[in-house]
């Protein structure tokens, strides 16, 4: 369920028990005690009065303003814009313990390569320093320095991005560092005949830093007409081009919460724009922007602007973006498409038009929705039935990738209006417990929740109540009500996992299809005194069982009067009459 990499689930559970979420969050923003919980102004959206609540009992947080919620790990992921592994490491550091790693033979051993990774990061730093020195002081590096001067890149800007030069004679690396370590860093390669060679030779070097500032790879540009013009590090234990973007660390160093992020094609585009004071730019690394890239960038901003050439290749690249973008868009997030005039790149455009005009073009770039539907309006004849049918068949698969949101509903409505076809038959999740609030079962008289939801909410918010279930012998097959499969699935999970608190249960369901249901149940206001929760839960289970037995008994009696019962059903009916 939660994707913990090589970190044992047992350790994560133990970590969540050892950490008090109130202490953790209070170390990042001041909390004020109000009743049983603690409150603050939400760090994830702008608000004037506190709506961010932290529960010590549940070990979770919830914002009643923006809806953000989760456990201690979720808070660190959102607050620090970190991934899951980084958040676990930060949480472990908060309580002063080391993170173990799973191996094939045992689940609680230190990861054999953990020290190796630290060594690789150190080597990358040292090699970067060597390349910087070569750029500044070597005769050979002067041609790289001249190239930067010709592009009007200042020394300060070069320092910010740690630009350097890799000499043609690469074997000096072998006099300083171990050959295998250099291979592991991606700095050396091996030819088909087994000969070792330097991967970067005679190139202007662009260190690629992850968002934590660690150098994970390099990009290198030739200074003559040889090919390839640009060369990236290969996939290594430090570097994956599908997960990193160039310039993100430098961007966040200038502004940790940018209003928007501009995605351009290459290293020099990022650096050239930074030279003009435009510091909200990154570049993907020789690949199309993936969903992973977009979700990474959406951690830091609510708007992404993609810059593409105006030629056919640029338009093709823009359309390839659609699948990744549609899978990543949620309410409050948006994408725009900026098309460059012919014969221009970002550098030449900002030089010709000036920073103010360039920035205005970024801000007024085409919204993704307009670009998407505009593509079909330009390529299909929507005045004909056939063209409108093609519109539905081609557009619908993209729209179905959108997460459930107001944006998705509006996009579907726009497709209906444009096609004139109102029955799109878009698949919807009709499971009772995962329906939207206005579709869920109505509360019983007196404003109480339906029994299944009440019982589950009490259990999710107080997992220790599972002891009440353990003390009973319950025939779960006799439960008959709408949504019973989901009910028993969640209950059996809690029975098996025995989470220490709600925060630990949320961690088990991280990334699971039922995670939204668990979060909704965890946040459901019950207004039941703590002293009465066990009795309420026990009573709800008793009533569910009694109702199910009564319903099944009536069904069997009705069948007895009409078609008759099988011997097995007669035995069931006899047992039901003997059941109180």
Verbal overview:
By secondary structure, the protein is of the alpha+beta class. It has a six-stranded mixed sheet with strand order 12-14-13-15-16-17, with helices on both faces. Mean pLDDT is 86; it is low at 1-5, 104-115 and 426-447. A hairpin with a 5-residue loop joins strand 7 and strand 8 (196-198). It has five domains: 9-95, Zinc finger, CHC2-typedomain (DNA Primase, Chain A, Alpha-Beta Complex); 114-232, Alpha-Beta Complex (DNA primase DNAg catalytic core, N-terminal domain); 245-372, 3-Layer(aba) Sandwich (Dna Topoisomerase Vi A Subunit, Chain: A, domain 2), CATH 3.40.1360; 380-419; 447-578, DNAb Helicase, Chain A (Orthogonal Bundle), CATH 1.10.860.10.
List the helices and strands and how they pair.
Blueprint: H1 9-18, H2 21-26, E1 32-34, E2 37-40, E3 52-55, E4 60-63, E5 69-70, H3 72-80, H4 84-95, H5 114-137, H6 142-150, H7 155-160, E6 164-166, H8 172-176, H9 179-184, E7 188-190, E8 196-198, E9 203-209, E10 215-222, E11 230-232, E12 245-246, H10 248-254, E13 261-264, H11 267-275, E14 281-284, H12 291-297, E15 303-308, H13 312-328, E16 334-339, H14 346-353, H15 355-363, E17 366-367, H16 368-379, H17 385-399, H18 406-419, H19 451-461, H20 466-470, H21 484-497, H22 502-508, H23 515-523, H24 533-562, H25 567-578
Parallel strand pairs: 13-14, 13-15, 15-16
Antiparallel strand pairs: 1-2, 2-3, 3-4, 4-5, 6-9, 7-8, 9-10, 10-11, 12-14, 16-17
């Amino acid at each position: 369920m939660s994707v913990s990499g090589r970190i044992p689930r047992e350790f994560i559970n133990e970590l969540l028990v050892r950490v008090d979420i109130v202490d953790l969050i209070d170390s990042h923003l001041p909390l004020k005690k109000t009743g049983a919980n603690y409150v603050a102004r939400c760090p994830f959206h702008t608000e004037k009065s506190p709506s961010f609540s932290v529960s010590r009992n549940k070990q979770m947080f919830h914002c009643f303003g923006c809806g953000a919620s989760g456990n201690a790990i979720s808070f660190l992921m959102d607050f620090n814009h970190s991934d899951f592994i980084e958040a676990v490491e930060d949480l472990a550091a908060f309580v002063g313990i080391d993170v173990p790693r799973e191996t094939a033979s045992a689940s609680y051993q230190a990861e054999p390569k953990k020290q190796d990774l630290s060594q690789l990061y150190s080597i990358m730093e040292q090699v970067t320093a060597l390349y910087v020195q070569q750029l500044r002081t070597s005769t050979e590096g002067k041609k790289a320095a001249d190239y930067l001067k010709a592009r009007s890149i200042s020394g300060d800007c070069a320092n910010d991005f740690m630009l350097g030069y890799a000499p043609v004679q690469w074997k000096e690396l072998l006099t300083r560092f171990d050959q295998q370590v250099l291979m592991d860093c991606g700095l050396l390669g091996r030819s088909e005949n087994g000969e070792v060679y330097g991967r970067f030779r005679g190139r202007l070097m662009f260190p690629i830093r992850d968002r934590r500032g660690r150098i994970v790879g390099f990009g290198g540009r030739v200074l003559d007409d040889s090919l390839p013009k640009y060369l990236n590090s290969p996939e290594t234990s430090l570097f994956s081009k599908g997960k990193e973007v160039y310039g993100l660390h430098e961007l966040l160093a200038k502004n940790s919460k940018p209003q928007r992020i501009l995605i351009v094609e290459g290293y020099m585009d990022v650096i050239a724009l930074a030279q003009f004071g435009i510091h909200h730019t990154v570049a993907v690394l020789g690949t199309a922007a993936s969903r992973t890239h977009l979700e990474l960038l959406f951690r830091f901003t609510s708007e992404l602007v993609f810059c593409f050439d105006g030629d056919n290749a640029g338009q093709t690249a823009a359309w390839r973006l659609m699948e990744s973008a549609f899978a990543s868009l949620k309410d409050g997030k948006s994408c725009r498409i900026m098309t460059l005039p012919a014969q221009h790149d970002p550098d030449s455009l900002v030089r010709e038009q000036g920073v103010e005009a360039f920035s205005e073009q970024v801000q007024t770039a085409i919204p993704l929705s307009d670009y998407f539907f505009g593509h079909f309006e330009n390529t299909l004849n929507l005045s004909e039935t056939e063209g409108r049918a093609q519109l539905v068949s081609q557009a619908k698969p993209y729209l179905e990738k959108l997460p459930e949101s107001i944006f998705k509903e509006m996009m579907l409505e726009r497709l209906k209006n444009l096609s004139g076809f109102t029955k799109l038959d878009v698949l919807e999740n009709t499971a009772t417990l995962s329906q939207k609030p206005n579709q869920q079962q109505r509360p019983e008289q007196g404003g109480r929740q339906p029994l299944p939801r009440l019982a589950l909410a009490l259990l999710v918010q107080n997992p220790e109540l599972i002891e009440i279930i353990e003390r009973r012998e319950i025939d779960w097959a006799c439960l008959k009500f709408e949504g019973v499969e989901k009910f028993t699935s969640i209950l059996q999970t809690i029975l098996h996992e025995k989470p220490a608190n709600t925060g630990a249960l949320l961690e088990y369901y991280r990334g699971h299809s039922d995670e939204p249901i668990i979060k909704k149940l965890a946040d459901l206001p019950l207004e039941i005194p703590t002293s009465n929760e066990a009795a309420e839960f026990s009573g709800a289970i008793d009533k569910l069982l009694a109702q199910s037995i009564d319903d099944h008994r009536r069904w069997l009696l009705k069948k007895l009067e009409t078609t008759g019962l099988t011997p097995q059903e007669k035995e069931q009916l006899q047992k039901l009459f003997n059941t109180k």
